[in-house]
Design brief:
This protein is an alpha/beta fold and 269 residues long. The chain has one domain: Rossmann fold. The chain has 12 helices and 10 strands. The strands form 2 sheets. Strands 6-7-8-3-9-10 form a 6-stranded mixed β-sheet, with helices on both faces. A 4-stranded antiparallel β-sheet has the order 2-1-4-5, with helices on one face. Helix 7 (150-163) packs parallel to helix 8 (180-197).
Length: 269
């Protein structure tokens, strides 16, 4: 079992003319393989800062990030191996894919850099990745991102994150830039992939409705502090903190939000 731990992590940013801004304040939690944790909060609460620290796009001001109980490396081959095990799906599929390259290039690159499969198997692996995210390989592989819909682009971004065969996935608002009509399909895909590969998933969102239905545990972040955490249903149905109750009140009714055309609510498995 793989474990990724944030231990007493704080992050300060220097703001010109305003001094230091505390973005995270003593945050601790552990993500394990096979588990989905939702990190919920409004814009500016510190959610994306946590994602950047976990993927080492940012350094914590204090505290530690541990993988399987060991401090993660900050440079060199060790950091590269860490990033192969912990991958990120970015919020904006329009910006995260290079418009000048084909989908084949986007998926071949991590396969070759991380030597995931022998060179003569790269083509088959690219096609397998596209099929895993429910895209037609023949219709997709040689197209460029601008030729795909937003939902298709995000599926390609998910396939790219899976190319290195990670054990943990950081999904930073993965559907917020997509049309409402296709969000559920992408989230169901992530849930299926999580079960198939026993991935640990940190699902970052501002939406309590999706957090409840796609997560085992919910953590609520407010001004850089975790104000509430627990099993998904407990946090939603028996919220203790006033900020969680305010978020719940602002969220759509989960049963209506996740009803299929027949009116049947879609639930977590």
């Amino acid at each position: 079992m793989t474990t990724l731990e944030l231990r007493n992590v704080s992050k300060r940013y220097r703001v010109r003319g305003a001094g230091d801004m505390l973005a995270l304040d003593d945050v601790s939690f552990t993500l394990t393989s096979g588990q989905t944790i939702a990190l919920v909060g409004q814009s500016g609460s510190g959610k994306s800062t946590i994602a950047k620290i976990l993927t080492q796009l940012e350094r914590a001001s204090s505290g530690h990030v541990l993988l399987d109980g060991q401090p993660i490396p900050h440079r060199g081959p060790g950091l590269r191996r860490y990033r192969q095990r912990v991958r990120m799906v970015f919020q904006d599929p329009f910006a995260s894919l290079n418009p000048y390259h084909t989908i084949r290039h986007h998926l071949e690159r991590p396969l070759r850099l991380d030597a995931v499969v022998p060179q003569d198997q790269v083509e088959d692996e690219v096609r397998s990745l596209l099929a895993r995210v429910r895209l037609d390989p023949d219709a997709t592989i040689d197209r460029r991102p601008h030729e795909l819909s937003g939902g298709q682009r995000q599926r390609v971004a998910i396939a790219r994150a899976l190319a290195s065969r990670p054990e943990l996935l950081i999904a930073d608002e993965p559907v917020s830039m997509l049309d409402v009509s296709i969000r559920l399909g992408v989230l169901n895909l992530l849930a299926d992939l999580q079960r198939e590969s026993n991935l640990g998933v940190l699902y970052i969102t501002h939406d309590l409705a999706t957090a409840r239905h796609f997560s085992d545990e919910i953590m609520v972040l407010h001004h850089g502090v975790v104000v509430e955490r627990g099993a998904a249903d407990d946090v939603i149905l028996r919220a203790q903190h006033e900020y969680t109750r305010a978020l719940r009140g602002a969220s759509p009714d989960p049963d209506k939000h996740f009803a299929d055309p027949s009116g049947r609510a879609v639930t977590r498995s």
